[in-house]
């Protein structure tokens, strides 16, 4: 009986933490890295890019500036 009450509190806490993180997490995260493609190529060839390719990634996705791998 002494361990039943603390065990219930711990389980309730874990369940509450688990449900809140699932609602806020994205369904899928995809990282695309193009080797040997400098960032300035996007601005240099912007007019030549199609609307459903890199332009869509740039406008609707996440672009990381000033980073190294």
What does this structure look like?
With 69 residues, the chain is mainly α. The chain has one domain. The radius of gyration is 23 Å and the shape is rod-shaped.
The overall average pLDDT, rounded, is: 77
Q: Could you state the order of secondary-structure elements as H and E? A: HHH
> Any idea what the radius of gyration is?
23 Å
Poorly predicted segments: none
List keywords for this structure.
69 residues
Concise synopsis of the structure shown:
With 69 residues, this protein is mainly alpha-helical. The protein is 48% helix and 0% strand.
Strand and helix map with partners:
Blueprint: H1 4-24, H2 40-44, H3 54-60
């Amino acid at each position: 009986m002494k361990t039943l009450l603390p065990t219930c509190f711990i389980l309730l806490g874990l369940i509450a933490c688990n449900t809140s993180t699932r609602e806020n997490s994205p369904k899928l995260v995809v990282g695309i890295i193009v080797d040997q493609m400098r960032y300035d190529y996007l601005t240099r060839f912007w007019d030549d890019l199609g609307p459903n390719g890199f332009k869509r990634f740039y406008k609707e996705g996440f672009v990381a500036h000033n980073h190294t791998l």
